[in-house]
Write a structure and sequence with these properties.
- By secondary structure, this protein is an all-alpha fold.
- It has one domain: MetI-like (MetI-like fold), CATH 1.10.3720.
- Helix content is about 70%, strand content about 0%.
- It has a two-stranded antiparallel sheet.
- Strand 1 and strand 2 form a beta hairpin.
């Protein structure tokens, strides 16, 4: 009886990439860890502080407020973009020349750089000359995202929905396009309604891609920085100062490297924990 041997030489081709990624990830991470447990007064002289900065961040009302704003923003984004992206994907054509047209149109917002998106919406939403701002004010709405917190939140959310719903659409469309035609034929024979097809065939078959979409959108929205910073600068006041913006203010604006490093590590652990929680909850029945 012959034993099958496994050739592991393929790992030699992957090894340079693994080493490069590890090098680019570990060195910055260890630098942040180093700053998070030390204090410096300049001249490259450091003093060990232990977990002082972590305790300071965790007990800081500023951090709690930023975290609450971040969780609120991310929750709203997921609630809007996931169902909207799935709905658009289900209405897109599966065959014919319009498929390519729809896919290209869906991909266009994703090709625009983040800082350009913020600059575009900054002009687009200006209350006096912007198309969005002037239209809303002419309709009787009191809209000014530079002065009103509610208007600022509305604009930031609308901008993110416009920019990133396409990602959910493309992933959901890929998932629904991979469903074999036999499922639809069986549903037609059984007389299933359109809602029944969506509920019992399309949504279950899209579970894996929707899991990826939720994880990607959660991580992206939780780490959002460029778009709201260019659009509102975190204002008015601290209304749209999310965790990432607050972290940059502490690190570069105040140059408090210790608290900023500790906050970035806490930030990283929160994202890691919530991603694991999302994935576990969505995939818990997969083996069954």
């Amino acid at each position: 009886m012959s034993r099958k041997t496994t050739n592991q030489k393929a790992w030699l081709f992957v090894l340079p990439v693994v080493v490069l990624v590890a090098f680019n990830a570990l060195i910055p991470l260890m630098t942040v860890v180093n700053y998070s447990v030390q204090e410096t007064f300049g001249n490259n002289v450091f003093f060990f502080e232990g977990v002082k900065w972590f305790e300071e961040v965790l007990h800081s009302e500023r951090f709690h407020a930023s975290l609450l704003r971040q969780l609120t923003f991310t929750s709203i984004i997921l609630i809007i973009e996931i169902p909207l992206g799935v709905a658009i994907a289900l209405t897109m054509p599966r065959k014919g020349p319009w498929v390519s047209v729809c896919l290209v149109l869906m991909a266009l917002p994703l090709l625009i750089p983040w800082n350009v998106v913020g600059a575009m919406w900054n002009i687009f939403a200006l209350p006096d000359i912007g198309l969005l701002g002037k239209t809303l004010n002419s309709m009787g709405f009191d809209y000014d995202y530079t002065q009103q917190p509610l208007s600022a939140w509305f604009t930031v959310i609308l901008m993110d929905v416009w920019h990133w719903t396409s990602l959910v659409v493309l992933l959901a469309y890929a998932g629904v396009s991979s469903i074999p035609e036999a499922y639809y034929q069986a549903a037609k024979i059984d007389g299933a309604s359109s809602w029944a097809i969506i509920r019992y065939i399309e949504l279950p078959k899209m579970k894996r891609v929707l899991t990826i979409a939720i994880l990607l959108r959660f991580m992206d929205s939780f780490m959002i920085y460029t778009e709201p910073f260019v659009l509102t600068g975190g204002g008015p006041g601290n209304t749209t100062t999310f965790l990432s913006i607050d972290l940059v203010k502490i690190a570069l604006g105040q140059f408090d490297l210790g608290p900023a490093a500790a906050m970035s590590l806490i930030y990283f652990m929160i994202i890691l924990l919530l991603c694991w929680l999302f994935y576990t909850l969505m995939m818990k029945d997969e083996e069954k």
